[in-house]
Task: inverse folding
């Protein structure tokens, strides 16, 4: 928490306080309106192996939540369930009361869940700007015929694409790299571009899979500021997987810990830090000495 | 009896497809490439056998051995000069190269052997055909030899890939080349061996095919090559039993379509079956699905 | 300001392509006018135009959409025979230009219907599986047309899958498609100018599509299917879109090609033709439309120029293919090209590289 104190401006902290921390198993009826995403009994099995086992989790409308756990705990698999890359064996995913479990990946995105990937997945051969424009695909409409025959609609939508893409790139001050092929960006910029592209889809919930991986401490520091800024500007919920505890403890209001596919702890950063089960999951059982 | 005759002919033709498909499947398994030139190796094998029997007057068995040896060397050469430099190239580029090799083999054969069809002497002329049901059902010797060869080849390959050191190395390479290399497996050598084995099988298939259908031309291998490839995909590419099953099924379907629907439409039906199977089970009959890791 | 510069980059690249085709057309036309073009070259002009259109349309599938299609000749075939039947039915009473246009439009229509029929189920498959199914499709089309008879008499159209006799035409009826013999007595409606216009139209459609919202979605699916889905793009829709548009354009090219000859057989549009078109695309650079246009022109002329060496001509063709691929990916050469490019880009520092449709 010290880090947060140091790096976050007073103004931003005030807004942070306004956000409810929702970490209960099932959200009480009166709080339903404040929930952005809720999953109930979410499970997936791969040939008998329960990769995600009966997970109940809810994220508030403008909450920044963290999902942590040792390697192989099922964190990325959980993201893949939320975005329906894998079909859940059981359970439901409620996004604004709509059950997205079983929808196709692209439909889930249109419903309002956007994500980044642990192993970066950009459209490498296309420019940075085009990557963001593809993120905006569902936001700006223009048919194939107006594109081929260059009808006025095409020009109008292209102008909007261009303006909004640059606007979004400006979050990370990347507008000057708009014409660079995405594949040739430095690693950190590729991660940032993935976030911009996900934001372009106008999500209600943003899933970040190890956003700070490969970044140095000062870059991570900067990323924390950005995550807060994104939440405040866009008023969305953010769920992030991260191994960098400074980042997790610094920006997350609620944290869930996953181990062997099960949620073993939920709570505020300070609660998690003191939880003996979490310490055990990370460090192993303490031998008697 | 017509039905039984057709069935036997189908199994026989299918066995040839199966042997070719086994080569296709092995190469695909390890090199992840569609070796379009594979069909033309069949043709080369048949020509070598033809030449050694007709011009050198060698015995059929010696000719077959010569043909297998020649194709094995050819397979290694093709891999070394045409495919090896493309190990890291996109699969489409490798495919184009394979098409180039296919044209190269066809046209070299055209220049050396000319385009007029040669009548292929059967390699099993001395063997009598079997008559059943008081002569009503006549099974030609070549049919029996073909089916037996196919069974033998399939069993041999299964043993080879599951029991021998080189076979295991092959399977390791097809799973993960990088990891195999780290385990001390010579990946280049293993891939060469697969091409060698595949091409050797193609030579056998060529001889058997031309013994049953004795017209030999530079384009003889093209269509059986494509069909064997379809057979490999039908059975599940990468799977050895799949290739054998796909080959035999394809042969049976083709012969039955020819007998009951019409010679001209037989190929269309063969391909239609393939499309239907792939739509129902995209990984083929015995193939297993692989999911991309996200 | 930024926008104007950005747009002009893609547009400039496209204009060069249009300009190149137009310049080549004018030069060829002048050569013909002055009588300096050889007879054999003049016979090749319409096929060259058709192959340029085919290469451009296949490039949309292979280069832009990133799918391997081995049955492009099937669509060409459908377009060719549809075009022939339609212009025959319209009869010589109709103005030739109108006849040609209706022929081309109906060719595009049937080819795109075939594209949807085959593409709809097949787009669930990927990679080599899609390739093999398109191959199978091409062979099926060829086989079906080999067994297809169509005739017309005063009672209308008749078709049969058995023989010309089975059509049961009355006196004065004529056979339009005659099984393996294909169609004959085709009106010679194609011309070099028509070919030029069709190239321009094909380029217009493909280049504009690439530089539009839909084109970006198609390329996104090519670059990373899962990421494309994650931003809400319907993968099947855009793969199918590229496939069907390419099929329609190939159908038109097929009709252009067929109406250059008095008779056309179904076996002309076989697997080898599909491969030939694919080779044009690959040698021109996948996704590089201009490269495809150039390679289509060169590779259609080259085998004809090499005719004097007889059977060796296809041998050389094969060696060119293998050599081109090997040289492209030879590690030493790749390294060398990378160095050159670095030197080159160091010189014009600050200038950004962005060709609209480039994609080496």
Result:
């Amino acid at each position: 928490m010290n880090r947060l104190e140091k790096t976050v401006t007073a103004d931003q902290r005030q807004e942070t306080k306004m956000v409810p921390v929702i970490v209960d198993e099932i959200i009480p009826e009166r709080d339903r309106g404040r929930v952005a995403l809720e999953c109930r009994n979410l499970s997936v099995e791969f040939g008998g192996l329960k990769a995600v086992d009966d997970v109940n989790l809810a994220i508030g409308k403008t909450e920044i939540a963290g999902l942590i756990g040792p390697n192989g705990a099922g964190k990325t698999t959980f993201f893949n369930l939320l975005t329906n890359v894998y079909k859940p064996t059981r359970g439901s995913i409620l996004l604004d009361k709509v059950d997205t479990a079983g929808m196709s990946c692209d439909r889930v995105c249109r419903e309002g869940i956007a994500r980044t990937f642990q192993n970066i997945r950009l459209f490498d051969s296309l420019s940075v700007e085009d990557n963001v424009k593809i993120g905006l695909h569902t936001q700006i409409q223009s048919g194939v015929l107006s594109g081929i025959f260059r009808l006025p609609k095409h020009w109008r939508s292209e102008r909007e694409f261009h303006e909004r893409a640059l606007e979004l790139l400006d979050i990370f001050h990347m507008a000057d790299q708009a014409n660079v092929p995405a594949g040739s960006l430095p690693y950190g910029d590729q991660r940032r571009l993935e976030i911009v592209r996900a934001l372009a889809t106008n999500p209600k919930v943003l899933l970040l899979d190890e956003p700070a991986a490969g970044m140095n401490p000062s870059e991570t520091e900067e990323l924390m500021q950005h995550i807060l800024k994104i939440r405040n500007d866009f008023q969305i919920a953010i769920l992030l997987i991260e191994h960098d505890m400074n980042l997790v403890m610094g920006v997350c209001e609620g944290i869930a810990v996953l181990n062997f596919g099960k949620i073993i702890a939920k709570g505020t950063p300070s609660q998690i830090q003191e939880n003996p089960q979490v310490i055990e999951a990370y460090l192993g059982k303490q031998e008697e000495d | 009896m017509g039905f039984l005759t057709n069935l036997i002919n189908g199994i026989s033709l299918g066995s040839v497809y199966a042997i070719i498909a086994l080569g296709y499947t092995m190469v695909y398994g390890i090199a992840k490439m569609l070796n379009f030139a594979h069909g033309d190796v069949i043709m080369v094998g048949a020509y070598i056998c033809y030449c050694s029997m007709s011009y050198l007057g060698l015995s059929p068995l010696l000719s077959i051995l010569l043909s297998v040896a020649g194709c094995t060397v050819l397979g290694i050469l093709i891999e070394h000069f045409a495919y090896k430099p493309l190990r890291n190239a996109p699969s489409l580029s490798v495919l184009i190269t394979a098409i180039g090799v296919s044209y190269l083999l066809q046209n070299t054969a055209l220049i050396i052997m000319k385009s007029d069809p040669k009548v292929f002497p059967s390699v099993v002329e001395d063997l009598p055909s079997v008559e059943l049901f008081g002569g009503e059902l006549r099974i030609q010797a070549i049919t029996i030899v073909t089916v037996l060869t196919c069974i033998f080849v399939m069993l041999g390959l299964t043993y080879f890939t599951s029991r021998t050191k080189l076979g295991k190395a092959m399977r390791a390479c097809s799973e993960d080349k990088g990891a195999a290399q780290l385990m001390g497996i010579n990946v280049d050598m293993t891939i060469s061996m697969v091409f060698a084995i595949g091409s050797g099988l193609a030579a056998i298939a060529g001889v058997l095919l031309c013994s049953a259908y004795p017209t030999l031309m530079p384009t003889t291998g093209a269509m059986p090559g494509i069909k064997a490839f379809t057979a490999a995909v039908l059975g599940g590419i990468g799977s050895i039993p799949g290739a054998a099953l796909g080959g035999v099924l394809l042969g049976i379907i083709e012969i039955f379509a020819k007998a009951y629907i019409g010679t001209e439409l037989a190929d269309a039906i063969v391909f239609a079956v393939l499309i239907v199977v792939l739509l129902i089970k995209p990984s083929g009959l015995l193939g297993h699905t692989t999911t991309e890791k996200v | 300001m930024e926008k104007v510069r950005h747009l002009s980059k893609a547009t400039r690249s496209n204009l060069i392509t249009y300009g190149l085709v137009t310049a080549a057309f004018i030069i060829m036309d002048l050569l013909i006018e002055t009588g300096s073009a050889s007879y054999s070259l003049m016979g090749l002009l319409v096929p060259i135009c058709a192959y340029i259109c085919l290469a451009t349309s296949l490039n949309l599938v292979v280069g832009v959409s990133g799918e391997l299609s081995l049955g492009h000749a099937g669509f060409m075939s459908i377009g060719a025979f549809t075009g022939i039947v339609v212009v025959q039915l319209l009869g010589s009473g109709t103005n030739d230009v109108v006849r040609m246009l209706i022929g081309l439009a109906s060719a595009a229509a049937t080819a795109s219907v075939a594209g949807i029929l085959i593409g709809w189920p097949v787009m669930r498959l990927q990679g080599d599986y899609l390739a093999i199914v398109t191959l199978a499709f091409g062979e099926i089309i060829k086989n079906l047309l080999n067994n297809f008879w169509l005739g017309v008499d005063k009672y209308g159209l008749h078709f049969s899958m058995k023989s010309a006799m089975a059509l049961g035409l009355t006196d004065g009826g004529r056979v339009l498609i005659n099984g393996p013999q294909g169609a004959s007595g085709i009106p010679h409606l194609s011309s070099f100018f028509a070919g030029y216009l069709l190239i321009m139209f094909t380029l217009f459609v493909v280049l504009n599509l690439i530089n539009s919202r839909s084109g970006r979605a198609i390329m996104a699916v090519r670059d990373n299917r899962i990421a494309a889905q994650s931003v809400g793009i319907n993968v099947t829709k855009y793969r199918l879109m590229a496939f069907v548009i390419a099929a329609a354009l190939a159908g038109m090219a097929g009709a252009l090609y067929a109406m250059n000859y008095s008779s056309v057989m179904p076996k002309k549009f076989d697997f080898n033709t599909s491969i030939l078109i694919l080779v044009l695309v690959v040698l021109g650079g996948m996704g590089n439309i201009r490269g495809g246009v150039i390679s289509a022109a060169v590779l259609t002329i080259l085998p004809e120029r090499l005719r004097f060496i007889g059977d060796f001509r296809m041998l050389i063709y094969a060696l060119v293919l293998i050599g081109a691929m090997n040289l492209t990916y030879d590690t030493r050469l790749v390294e060398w090209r990378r160095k050159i490019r670095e030197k080159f880009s160091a010189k014009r520092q600050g200038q950004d590289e962005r060709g609209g449709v480039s994609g080496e």
